[in-house]
Write a structure and sequence with these properties.
single chain; alpha/beta; Rossmann fold; globular; NAD(P)-dependent dehydrogenase, short-chain alcohol dehydrogenase family
């Protein structure tokens, strides 16, 4: 068994997931970094994890499938013998933004499979392992952290399927927090706002203007590292009397103001 605590981070090849995996690696965690890209095509993205000097492995897997999820969990256990943190970060936006009245069943299914089902069933698999490990060693402090979005509560009728998938993750968080609290497993939801990633690069000009005009009290784009800091706060032990908690990383977007 690894002496380092082990964190699984899905969607870790770039953007928010990569920043999270890098931050946890620098804090001493062994890392299972999950992505769908061929490893040779994204190797430079993991320089920060390499520099941290702790054990890590990249798993190429599709989190939306049972086989992909089994590959992730079995690799973690075979290589490290433990799972201390699961960060459900993998997520996609619609391939094409369409009005709510035109949204296709195919697009809805795709987002629910990747964004929602992966979070639910990977949490389910990992929670069983965490429960057993916690029973054997009560000193362990396992955590499950779900990355949702301000879209969990904000209407965007040109990408309704995305909003629905993220709103569902909020309920997944509450359900698992409730179910696992007695076992000593804490569950958190982190809601990023406007974060500078590949996903948001296509609407940069739009959000530049909206931020300048007061969309968020803190007038700047969020960075992936801002989300990574929130994940570390949850993992650090400083929030151990909290579960089912929502951490907004959104520059104050959630503040309702006149």
């Amino acid at each position: 068994m690894s002496e380092n605590k082990l964190a699984i981070v899905t969607g870790a090849s770039r953007g928010i997931g990569n920043a999270i995996a890098t931050r946890l690696a620098t804090e001493g965690y062994a890392i299972v970094a999950v992505g769908t890209s061929a490893p040779e095509s994204i190797a430079p993205n993991f320089a920060g994890i390499e520099q941290a000097g702790n054990p890590w492995v990249y798993v190429q897997a599709d989190v939306s499938t049972p086989a992909g999820r089994e590959k992730i969990v079995s690799t973690a256990m075979a290589r490290f013998g433990r799972i201390d943190v699961l960060v459900n970060n993998a997520g996609v936006a619609p391939k094409v933004r369409m009005d709510l009245l035109e949204t296709s069943e195919e697009s809805l299914d795709r987002l629910l499979d990747i964004n929602l089902k992966s979070t639910f069933f990977l949490s389910q698999s990992v929670a069983r392992i965490m429960e057993s490990a916690k029973a054997e060693d009560p000193q362990r402090t396992p955590k499950i952290i779900n990355i949702s979005s301000v879209s969990a509560y904000t209407s965007s009728t040109m990408r309704g399927e995305y909003c629905i998938s993220k709103a569902a993750i909020s309920m997944v968080t509450l359900l698992f927090a409730d179910r696992l609290a007695a076992a000593g497993i804490n569950v958190y939801e982190i809601r990023p706002g406007i974060i500078a990633t590949d996903m948001t690069s296509v609407v940069k000009d739009k959000y530049d203007a909206m931020i300048a005009n007061g969309l968020t009290p803190i007038k700047r784009w969020g960075q992936p590292e801002d989300v990574a800091k929130a994940v570390w706060a949850a993992c650090s032990g400083l929030l151990d009397f909290c579960t089912g908690e929502v951490i907004n990383v959104d520059g104050g977007f959630h503040i309702r103001r006149l």
